[in-house]
């Protein structure tokens, strides 16, 4: 019996990048038993406003490990973001997003960039608590709790220690939001005292984001509230080379979800154009989570070798590209290596 995991093919480019990722996992000999659930557009169309059905929750709670493709949330019409629903439903409080340059093989202005963004995943403005005060005044509640801050900040320091990182940077806007972001910063300073071997600093999010775009190589681990982390990690992935390259882990005490950081990119769907690397990197993080570190390393090395050999999908094609390949051909090239 393999290790049961829950898998969703998602929407847009989701099915293509999932098929590519599962081929690599299978050919690498990963002893996994994927249970496929349907989420996203097709479920919204059945009138289920959450985009996920009860039987799918049952699978997720049982396996505790979710490999997920991007889904499209219909605009307007009272549909909830499925990502937010799943993160909150499974208590996935930490969102871990490594962003690394793969120079010279993938074009980037910042070849030495190698950082990890650890984003709080359940609170802040993404708690989804919004009100209409009057016809002309809308309100969104920014919720920051001490236990929430402690969990994510502790996670970030433990992550840095476990991965041999040397610095943790906190980013907030506590000069303006003194109570909410102020609490996050204060907890960072408190918990940081337990990690004297790690360098620690705090930046106001606006200058922090500017530095990230300009000199990302000065950062190592970044810990930040939900909204800032969402924006920062897209910037970081793009600065590193492409949003199509980065994977992420969503970690909780009773489960974990692994996904690419990008969305469902409907404009390039169904054309065998999408880069499956983001989801593949997420799958590598999943294998580490499952204790299959050696297999994770094997797949990651094969993937790196594919990039080094100049086999690139269109989104990262550049001067060192030897062959521009499609989604499936890229996966096959990884398998060969
Ligand atoms: P969604 O509403 O689901 O976020 P989106 O169109 O905003 O969909 P994103 O994934 O956020 O899609 O991507 C924005 C753009 O980045 C896409 O239109 C596409 O050009 C590019 N992109 C994203 N992911 C990939 C990928 N895996 N491979 C190639 N290009 C990608
Ligand atoms: Mg998007």
TrEMBL record:
Name used for this protein in its record: Isocitrate dehydrogenase [NADP]
GO BP of this protein: glyoxylate cycle; isocitrate metabolic process; tricarboxylic acid cycle
UniProt KW keywords: Glyoxylate bypass, Magnesium, Manganese, Metal-binding, NADP, Oxidoreductase, Tricarboxylic acid cycle
Main EC class the enzyme belongs to: oxidoreductase
Portion of the full-length sequence here: 1 to 337 of 499
Residues annotated as domain Isopropylmalate dehydrogenase-like: 4-334
A molecular-function term among this protein's GO annotations: isocitrate dehydrogenase (NADP+) activity
Function as written in the Swiss-Prot or TrEMBL entry: Catalyzes the oxidative decarboxylation of isocitrate to 2-oxoglutarate and carbon dioxide with the concomitant reduction of NADP(+).
EC id: 1.1.1.42
Entry coiled-coil feature ranges: none
Assembly and interaction partners: Homodimer.
Family from the record: Belongs to the isocitrate and isopropylmalate dehydrogenases family.
Record has Oxidoreductase as a keyword: yes
Phylogenetic classification of the source organism: Bacteria, Pseudomonadati, Planctomycetota, Planctomycetia, Isosphaerales
Cofactor(s) this protein requires: Mg(2+); Mn(2+)
Catalytic activity: D-threo-isocitrate + NADP(+) = 2-oxoglutarate + CO2 + NADPH
């Amino acid at each position: 019996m393999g290790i049961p995991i829950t898998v969703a093919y998602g929407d847009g480019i989701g099915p293509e990048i999932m098929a590519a990722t599962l081929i690599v996992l299978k050919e690498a000999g990963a002893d996994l038993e994927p249970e496929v659930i349907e989420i996203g557009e097709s479920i919204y169309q059945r009138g289920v406003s959450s985009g996920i059905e009860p039987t799918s929750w049952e699978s997720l709670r049982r396996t505790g490990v979710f490999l997920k493709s991007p889904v499209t949330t219909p605009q307007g019409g009272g549909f909830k973001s499925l990502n937010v629903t799943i993160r909150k439903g499974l208590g996935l409080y930490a969102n871990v997003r490594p962003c690394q340059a793969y120079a010279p093989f993938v074009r980037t202005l910042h070849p030495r960039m190698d950082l990890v963004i650890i984003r709080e995943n359940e609170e802040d403005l993404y708690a989804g608590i919004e009100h209409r005060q009057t016809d002309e005044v809308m309100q969104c509640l920014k919720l920051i709790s001490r236990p929430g801050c402690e969990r994510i900040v502790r996670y970030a320091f433990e992550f840095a220690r476990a991965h041999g990182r040397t610095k943790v940077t906190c980013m907030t806007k506590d000069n303006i939001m003194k109570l909410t972001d102020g609490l996050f910063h204060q907890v960072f300073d408190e918990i940081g005292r337990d990690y004297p071997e790690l360098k620690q600093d705090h930046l106001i999010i606006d200058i922090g984001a500017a530095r990230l775009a300009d000199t990302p190589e000065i950062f190592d681990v970044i810990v930040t509230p939900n909204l800032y982390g969402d924006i920062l990690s897209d910037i970081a992935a793009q600065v590193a080379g492409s949003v199509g390259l980065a994977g992420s882990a969503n970690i909780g005490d009773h489960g974990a979800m692994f996904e690419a950081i990008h969305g469902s990119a409907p404009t390039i769907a169904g054309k065998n154009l999408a880069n499956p690397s983001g989801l593949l990197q997420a799958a590598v993080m999943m294998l580490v989570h499952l204790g299959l570190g050696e297999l994770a390393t094997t797949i990651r090395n094969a993937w790196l070798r594919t990039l080094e050999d100049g086999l690139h999908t269109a989104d990262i094609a550049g001067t060192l590209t030897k062959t521009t390949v499609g989604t499936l051909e890229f996966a096959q090239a990884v398998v060969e290596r």
